[in-house]
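Retry 2 of 3 after timeout on previous attempt. Resubmitting structure tokens to design endpoint.
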């Protein structure tokens, strides 16, 4: 039974992928309206972002650590007018992403990592967790403690750019959302974006609670870096392996000047983190 469910989900994914490639966005929207369906939706994987969208105007999203493109795929399902610049250094992942989204005029793909200086670096690829590629060495003890196997570690040399350099070259004036998923390299990415941060509205960043990589910052250090540079934390979520020992957290920041005034009719609001 479980195998049948998995097969059905894979078939559904293949059909939806084909529809997206064949039908332009306006045609898909018209069909949804005719069927009485919501014209856009945000996948539950990214429900934390509901407080900043959907945005019904052209805007720029930078996806740093795009892997196969799932994040920006979901964002554009919700905000079809987004113009995405996606960064992925690992050749295998970039090829898969290019095959799926290379023909989409709303997406610009960059086969490079993002850091604090342009050049090249050695990327560590965990053969049993290929979504967990990092420029930092994994801490074997921590990986064992959280119950994740790393497998053998392979390496590949990849090009590196910076947000400041890229934004300057592409003449991007405003970034609505900067998404960062770089396995311990968060502060390097942010240091390479110092000149651009005043033109970034929101930052969505994954950071460690458990130190999975040598020299990786904690989520608190990422928080302090951004709050010191004019951002405030809007909301966050964290996950664990079923034992209540939190492993990583996703944090959503907004530039301070974008915060609306408080509600004079209520003393406080509560957010529940599940």
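Retry 2 succeeded. Sequence:
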């Amino acid at each position: 039974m479980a195998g049948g469910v998995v097969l059905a989900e894979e078939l559904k994914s293949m059909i939806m992928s084909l529809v997206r490639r064949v039908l332009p966005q306006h045609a898909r929207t018209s069909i949804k309206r005719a069927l009485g369906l919501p014209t856009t939706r945000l996948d539950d994987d990214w429900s934390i972002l509901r407080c900043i969208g959907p945005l019904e105007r052209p805007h720029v999203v930078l996806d740093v650590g795009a892997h196969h493109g799932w994040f920006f795929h979901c964002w554009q399902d919700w905000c079809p007018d987004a113009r995405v610049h996606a960064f992925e250094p690992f050749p295998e992942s970039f090829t898969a992403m290019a095959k799926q989204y290379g023909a989409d005029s709303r997406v610009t793909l960059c086969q490079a990592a993002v850091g604090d200086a342009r050049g090249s670096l050695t990327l560590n690829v965990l053969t049993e967790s290929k979504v967990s590629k990092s420029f930092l060495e994994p801490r074997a003890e921590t990986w064992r403690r959280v119950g994740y196997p790393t497998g053998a570690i392979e390496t590949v040399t990849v090009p590196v750019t910076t947000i400041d350099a890229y934004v300057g070259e592409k003449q991007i004036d405003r970034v609505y959302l900067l998404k960062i998923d770089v396995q311990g390299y968060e502060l390097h990415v942010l240091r390479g974006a110092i000149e651009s941060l005043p033109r970034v509205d929101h930052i969505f960043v994954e950071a460690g609670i458990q130190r999975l990589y040598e020299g990786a910052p904690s989520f608190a250090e990422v928080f302090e870096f951004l709050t010191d540079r004019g951002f405030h934390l809007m909301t966050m979520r964290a996950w664990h392996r079923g034992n209540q020992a939190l492993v990583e957290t996703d944090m959503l920041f907004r530039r301070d000047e974008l915060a609306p005034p408080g509600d004079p009719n209520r003393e406080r609001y509560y957010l529940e983190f599940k």
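Attempt log closed. The chain has a mean pLDDT of 91.
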